[in-house]
Design goal:
Layout lengths: L7 E4 L2 E4 L15 E2 L1 E6 L5 E6 L2 E5 L4 E6 L4 H9 L1 E6 L5 H7 L9 H4 L4 E2 L8 E2 L4 E12 L4 E12 L18 E4 L2 E4 L19
Antiparallel strand pairs: 1-2, 3-13, 4-5, 4-8, 6-7, 7-12, 8-11, 9-10, 11-12, 13-14
The chain binds flavin mononucleotide.
């Protein structure tokens, strides 16, 4: 009997649907990503801000984050020199400033002054926080791993500063109350639509009595 043409392939016990995905060459496609403004202060006292999308949370205890920076960036030298930085989350109002900090260089200007951003004193590091940012995270570099185009900095979180406006009436943090910027394949988007909460998909519904 003639075999029927099918859109499925069978591999031992598994049945696979024919892929509808287009094959791309290997590259960065892990999107969306948070986009953050990283503030630094050099040993010479000059401040800078670099926009970073290659950023991540890498450990809960101790709290650790990562940023990947190209050695050609002015900020790379500052990171190597001081090992300290502040991650500032980006609100809707800050998106144009974040973009500007991602195309201008601290070699040519003071980005705080140029973009009229306000320096706020941090607790643990010399680098200033950005006052206009809703959340600022002070960090100290623990390790640098050169990877190729970028160097990965693993850093410990020393202190976290959150805008009072993000606290609800029961004094609990409601981070989702503020739209934050994410970066996706060359574009900026905003968070905002809540579609569930941690564990909600398996949570048993309370029986009505
Ligand atoms: C949305 C966005 C994301 C970026 N992410 C990174 C990144 O993760 N790592 C990096 O080295 N550069 C990244 N850049 C580029 C730097 O921010 C940019 O080269 C900046 O001008 C460097 O500033 P500096 O010379 O003052 O250090 C990004 C730029 C933009 C606009």
């Amino acid at each position: 009997m003639k075999e029927l043409k099918t859109e499925k392939t069978v591999d031992k016990k598994r049945v696979y649907q024919k892929s509808k995905k287009r094959l791309f060459k290997p590259g960065n496609m892990l999107y969306p990503l948070p986009v953050v403004m990283v503030s630094l202060r050099g040993k010479d006292g000059r401040d800078n801000i670099i926009t970073i999308a290659w950023v991540g949370t890498v450990c809960t205890n101790p709290p650790m984050v990562s940023i990947s920076v190209r050695p050609s960036r002015y900020s790379y030298g500052l990171l190597k020199e001081t090992g300290e930085f502040v991650i500032n989350l980006v609100s809707e109002k800050l998106v144009p400033m974040a973009d500007a900090c991602g195309v201008l260089s601290g070699r040519d200007m003071d980005k705080f002054d140029h973009l009229k951003l306000t320096r706020e004193k941090a607790d643990q590091v010399a680098a200033p926080m950005i006052a206009e940012s809703p959340v600022s995270i002070e960090c100290r570099v623990k390790q640098e791993i050169p990877l190729g185009s970028h160097s990965l900095f693993l850093a410990e979180v020393l202190s976290v500063h959150v805008d009072e406006a993000l606290m609800d009436d029961k004094d609990r943090l409601n981070l989702s109350s503020k739209a934050l910027a994410v970066y996706s394949h060359g574009e900026y988007l905003l968070t905002g639509k809540k579609v569930g909460k941690f564990g909600y998909s398996v949570k048993k519904k309370k029986k009505k009595t």
